[in-house]
């Protein structure tokens, strides 16, 4: 067992790269909000320069959802499970990925790559698009990276033995009991059988798009294999309003569940001040 930060590709011996002469023709979905063309421009320029086909998907903007629609969402089970309410950004993210899943099932894609518009890619992605997926397990979720700047990165454990070499700089390793620490939906490879299970779960319960532990525990996939050839910027006030919404929701829900003794009143006031500060930051960003 090893931790994500200690992975050394040179320890993986006796493995052969997949020939990039075999074209897999993997459909690529690029998810982006209509109002943020500057975020997707680097990826669109990259794909255009290399003549890589992709499907641009208009993301669902949680801020534009109808208030009545949001109020009708039954989030009680989610709130008990996550100890906070779901945010409108998370609802938009979930609906955006379900939008992609519907298209995958409609077109009958066997495998698909899903990218969000802030994914940072290089020539290794070009190589990955041209590999043979014959040895990939259809009941496994393959996350292509995006963990470098996450808070829980150091808690992700990887197998020493269950890993495989795909091409130079592209190595997948099995995660070990780390599903709750693997986060983001910025870049992953998914089989249609997993997509179908996720769509079914979406019809039965409420979850957030990157709650991989919940999806694993409810049978959407068997394992997560993790690579690190795609990066994702660290969440900040300028690039991730979802992270702000999550902080606000956690603070608000935490104090709402407590009593109203003197100490709790003071804590509640502190929480309200924190929430106001966060919304002022959002306002300055034009949120």
Description:
The protein is an alpha/beta fold and 287 residues long. It folds into 2 domains: 2-230, Spore Coat Polysaccharide Biosynthesis Protein SpsA, Chain A (Alpha-Beta Complex); 241-284. 39% of the residues lie in helices and 18% in strands. The protein is built from 9 helices and 9 strands. It has a 9-stranded mixed β-sheet, with helices on both faces. Helix 1 (37-50) links the parallel strand 2 and strand 3. Helix 4 (88-107) crosses helix 6 and helix 8 packs antiparallel against helix 9 (262-284). It is globular. The N and C termini lie far apart (43 Å). Mean pLDDT is 81; it is low at 1-24 and 258-262.
Index terms:
globular, 9 helices, 18% strand, nine-stranded mixed beta sheet, alpha/beta, Spore Coat Polysaccharide Biosynthesis Protein SpsA, Chain A, 287 residues, 2 domains, 9 strands
List the strand order in the largest sheet: 1-6-7-9-5-8-4-2-3
Look up the CATH topology of the largest domain. Answer: Spore Coat Polysaccharide Biosynthesis Protein SpsA, Chain A
* Highest CATH level, the class of the largest domain: Alpha Beta
Largest sheet report: 9 strands, mixed
Helix-strand category: alpha/beta
Number of domains: 2
**Helix fraction bin:** 25-40%
